[in-house]
Amino acid sequence: MGPSAPGQMAAETPLRRQLAGAEPARPTALDALREAQRTFQAGRRVDMQGLARKLGVDRATLYRWVGTREELLAEVLWNLMATTVQRLREASPPGARPVAADIVTGAARAAMSNLGMQRFLEREGDLALRLLTTKASEFQQRLIQLIAGVVDDDRRHGHLHSSVPAADLPYVLVRIMESYVYLSLITGDEPDAARAASVIHALLPAR
Fold first, then answer.
1. For range 77-104, the mean pLDDT
2. For a tag site, which of 66, 68, 73, 120 has the least CB within 10 Å?
3. Domain boundary among 67, 82, 117
């Protein structure tokens, strides 16, 4: 397509109309995820009908965008965890000292203190455990892979001194995190970041 002739106005696109404020921006699947995450972070229940109404779309469109409510919740939970681990990695660049234990502990502590997670475990504990700790979603497998990357950073810099076999270590660390983050559902005790930290540091001793 050639350039417009001199004096000829370029065709007005929806983007230009939106930028000019003449046409409202249409919501997208990403908007649905962000709104669901805001709802979750505020400690409120993520409701598909309410979310569709908030976005101004019908439920069929919302389900086409994000899948089922469980699939959306799993993505919200994963996005929060991945963002937390990324922030911790950026704050503790590998090299001069071992950082894996601090990052894993920090991720567990963040999960324990998150209002949305607290309310989710209180209201929908069975669903939370199913999404977070079983093959019902990809959350656990993705977290194991993420923690494997954190551990590998220490390994490459000569800081890894764990007696746990390297192939098993990321899985073990994730299971330790789960044991303490979801302690209230497992034993009835309150989640305990200090206990989690002591075990994680024992598995990843610094030298």
1. 93
2. 68
3. 67
**Number of folded domains that form the chain:** 2
Q: Assess contact for 196 and 173: CB atoms under 8 A.
A: no
In a domain, 12, yes or no: no
Please, are residues 107 and 46 in contact by the beta-carbon 8 Å criterion? no
Size of the chain in residues: 207
| DSSP output for 41-85 | HTT----HHHHHHHHT--HHHHHHHH-SHHHHHHHHHHHHHHHHH
pLDDT over 70 for what percent of the chain? Answer: 88
Q: Whole domain around residue 58: which residue ranges?
A: 26-67
* CA–CA dist 43, 176 (Å, integer): 25
In the block, which residue shows the tokens 């001069």? 96
Residue 101: CB atoms within 10 Å: 22
Task: Give the global pTM.
Answer: 0.85
Reported as half-sphere exposure (CB side, CA atoms, 13 A), residue 146 has a value of 22
- Per-residue DSSP letter, 185: H
* One-letter amino acid for residue 176 of the chain: I
Q: Does residue 17 sit within a domain?
A: no
